[in-house]
Every structure is written in C-alpha cells, then in structure tokens.
C-alpha cells in the first residue's frame, strides 16, 4: 500500500496536452491529483485549524459580500505540522512548476477557503491584483476536501481571461462581479463550471478571472489552496494598497526588485 508520504512525493502523471490547455485557457481541472484517502487524512486537521484560527464570527446577514463568500484562513502550514506536510508536497509543487513552465516554485502562501451553508457568491476577480509580483508565473492549486457538486459552489473560470487586461484594477467586490459579467459577455468568453470529485484539483494562473456560486447545500464547501510562484520571481513595486500589505505580510523583509525569497517563501520544488 502506498504511504501518505509517498503519495505526496510521487509525481502526478501530467499529460502534455494538459500543460498546453493551462497555458491556453488560464486554468486546468485535473482528475485524481490526490488519492481520496489522502485528502480524507488531511481534511479533519485543516478543518480544526480553520475553526481555531477563523476570526469571522458575524451572522451571515451582517457580512459584506466578500465575507459571505467564504471563511478565509491563511498560512495554516505555520500552525500545524500535518498541514505543512500537504502544503510542502513535492507532488503538488512539481505539478505547479510543470503547469507554469518554470524550473522550480516557491510557496507564496496557503489559504483554506470554507464556504459555509448559505454562503454567497465569490465575485469575479483575478488573484494577481493582490500580489506584488514581477511576472505572471504564479498560480493556485484549488483542492476541495470533499466531493463538490454545483450546489456547493465549485470554482468556475472564464476561459482565456488571463490574456486580456480589463478588470485587473478591480478588487473582489460587488463592483468586480458586475463589471466582469458585462466584460466577459462582451468578449464572448465561455465559463467553465463543473463539479469536482474527491481528489480532483484545479490550477489557475494569477491573472485568470474566476468566480464561485453560492453554497446552497447543507454542508460547508471545504477547500485548501496553495499559491505558488516561480522560484526566481522578483518582488514588484506595489501598485495598490492591497499589494503593499501583501509585500509586508507575505514577503517580509523583501524589497521590490529582490528575489521573493523570505523565510516564508521556501523553494518547494526545483528540477
């Protein structure tokens, strides 16, 4: 029987056409990235950390659109050795490097994103709006911790949206949702929205616009994400206050123009 450690180190069998699809479309949905039993091993610990570290306790009706979308807890790897095993997985890091077409990747940070029952939409947005990074060689593995049917609000993607620049100045908000609905319709970009089986994961680039529907199911939509950057990525001069905060919090001690190599950003895989 394959051990959990081996399962997190063994390379994923990534077909070349999936790499091409990611570069063409800005994302890829991959089956069987982890064995379901491996996911089941880590879900209870991730959930326990989310409960312990979550700071959002307002009733749903009193929250902003952003806070209705999910409970958001970052850098769980610092709080749990077990979560660290998953976040530092060579299997996942190599997969990210292969999809980005780079020699190696660093950890930018991790995030658990739990959409509670009754949780609202995740508005259209592109993650890299928030990141002070010098290139587009960055992306996110989105790993659901349970089967995720459409009623739970799986992540959906605007196909090819990483290649146009409209909306890159919009934070996640009601305004980004409305503006991007119009922009995507005008450009006739298709939207990919499919359920995820347990063990499936997606990978999307930093400038790929994505969205999620509300969770109308009885159970929370539990998701772990890991954000990767090119191992040789340079920090960039922040262009908004969100990036200023990210530079200080996520790349501590790193100045614009320097390699994004703080102690919080270890190399997780290099060829």
Automatic annotation (TrEMBL):
InterPro entries in UniProt: Phytyl_CoA_dOase-like
Tagged with keyword tRNA-binding: no
Pfam families assigned: PhyH
Record key words, sorted: Dioxygenase, Oxidoreductase
GO MF terms, alphabetically ordered: 2-oxoglutarate-dependent dioxygenase activity; iron ion binding
Highest rank taxon of the organism: Bacteria
Statement: the UniProt record of this protein carries the keyword Nuclease: no
Cross-referenced Gene3D superfamilies: q2cbj1_9rhob like domain (2.60.120.620)
Protein name, entry field: Ectoine hydroxylase-related dioxygenase, phytanoyl-CoA dioxygenase (PhyH) family
Organism, as annotated: Jiangella alkaliphila
